[in-house]
Amino acid sequence: MLNDTPRPDDLPEAPSAYAALPPDYPQAPSGAGPGGSSGPGTGGPGRSPRLLVAAGVAVVVVVAVALAVWKGGGAEPAARSTALPSATRSSSPAGPMPSTPVPAPTAPGGVPAGLVGFYTQRLDWSPCSDNAKHRCATMEVPVDYAKPTGDRFTLALRKAPATEPGKRLGSLVINPGGPGGSGVEYAQYASFVFSPAVRAAYDVVGFDPRGIGASSPVRCLTDDDMDRLFSSDPTPDSAAERSTLLAEADAITARCATRGGDRARHLSTTEVARDMDVMRVLLGDEKLNFFGGSYGTFLGAIYADTFPTKVGRMVLDSAMSPNQTDEQEMSYDIQGFESSIDAFIDWCVPRSDCALGSDKAGARQKIVDLLDAVERDGLTTTTPGLTRIGEGWVGFSIFMCLYSDTSWPTLNQGLKQAFAGRGDILLEKGMSVVERDESGAYAPTTYLQAMIPVRCADWPRSATDPALAAAQAKAKREHPLWARMTGELYDNCRTWPTAGRTPKGSTLAVGAAPILVIGNERDPATPIGGTKQLAKDLDSGILLTSDHDGHGTYYAGNSCVDSAVDGYLLRGTAPADGTTC
């Protein structure tokens, strides 16, 4: 996901916590581990949002998901390529970005009168405090687009200017997923996640979505609430235990809604897509060039469906479709998890130090037995306040180690320690992902703050469906390790006060320019089934798959993928639909 040879001028003077720094980069103060989350900037679980899963799922360059995971082959390349429209050049001048305000833009035709002021505000770019070569700014958007004269969010933006102004093609807006990942932080590390050629030609612009990070943050969960999400028993064995689990989840969701107030009810991805269109105009771009990873692919798809004629060059990495059903999500989750755990087992068992021994056939059962023992007895740790951890933390941490093969050695050592009854290694991994320190404090910007409001807005409530319940029960019996990693399946938005989005269930983004959708064949977080579905659901989707493991495809070590993506972004030439690298 991240390049091991970053440009020094792209790095801050003191790195902040960042979940996906290369292994050889100096450790961030908060202990964020390498190879983290949702995609080269792909964030978050790329899973569907609704059901609480204490074991969790995560995001691509930025982190994981501790709540909600269940809603529910590439063809041989042809000897052709697809030419795209030329990238739309920004109307702003090429070269170093000014530190003074630029002239106010003109609102595009068709903008409602109440929104003209938002589309014509000026971006006052100034040097970022941690890197004078980057530019930072803010913009305002309405909390409720139906009431534009009401409350406003202030969004934080960060721009890494094109390194060769003479080659500049415009802006490339980026989102790392999550939901809840910081696009400002993502842009801070632009040279880690994009090739030198892309950096030369585009101003890479990241933003913290409404209510997240530095963008009028909505903080609806306490540290205790977040600890409870991981400490609850995710696999209840009786009706009483299940009732306790559901009551805890409902209480946390209700408290989040109360604390978050009206702003928390307006954190949907549909509203973020509208914010992004305002941003496009303020950046001076006729069309939106966009790179989204993990849950950021959901944002890209929603934008393209809402503003199809404004799509420029769009790359969706490690994807999921806004149309995915519960049944499809279940199928994708099983395939994604099992292909990833099998890849880890294939790597581990030939090693003399493999925690699972040398018998590949029995390796999965050893993990099942371990999780059963953890549910019964827990693991001891040296972390104050978490001196004994259960299935929630352990399953989440194991899952996060599957995001990248760079974390497989950590998983092997963590399992070895867990078989001896201790959980320090696994807990440290999980805590680094969710930005929890040893005192029990979570970073104010942790993506967990966004999980409930965003997911409850983005997906419909789960209906009681006896056939689906039976299918779920059958799947859990046939896939016991997946069942323990996934935990109890239920709707954690039952006490959220507003309804979720209703999936369109039809072709998306009709009339948009070609959109490149990419993914790894063995991705535990956004399984390849969802990536293939999104490419199919998009009217102009082009699928490119990578025969690799992990979460995040571009700039992750596959030169074939990198060349194809760069060719698309720089020259407007997409690979043939169905190409496999």
Please describe what this structure looks like.
- It comes from Terrabacter aeriphilus.
- Residues 95-106 have a biased composition (Pro residues).
- Residues 481-581 form the Peptidase S33 tripeptidyl aminopeptidase-like C-terminal domain.
- Residues 1-47, 76-107 are annotated as: Disordered.
- GO terms for molecular function: hydrolase activity.
- The structure is a single chain.
- The protein is of the alpha/beta class and 581 residues long.
- The protein has helices at 116-119, 183-188, 190-193, 196-201, 223-231, 239-264, 269-282, 295-306, 326-348, 360-377, 391-401, 408-419, 424-434, 448-458, 466-478, 480-486, 528-537, 559-571; strands at 42-43, 57-58, 64-65, 82-83, 126-128, 131-142, 152-160, 170-175, 202-207, 288-294, 311-317, 379-380, 388-389, 515-522, 541-549, 573-574, 579-580.
- The strands form four sheets. Strands 1, 5, 6, 7, 8, 9, 10, 11, 14, 15 and 17 form an eleven-stranded mixed beta sheet that branches. It has a two-stranded antiparallel ribbon with strand order 2-3.
- Helix 17 links the parallel strand 14 (515-522) and strand 15 (541-549).
- Helix 11 (391-401) crosses helix 13 and helix 15 (466-478) crosses helix 16.
- The chain is globular and about 65 Å long.
- Residues 1-101 have low confidence and may be disordered.
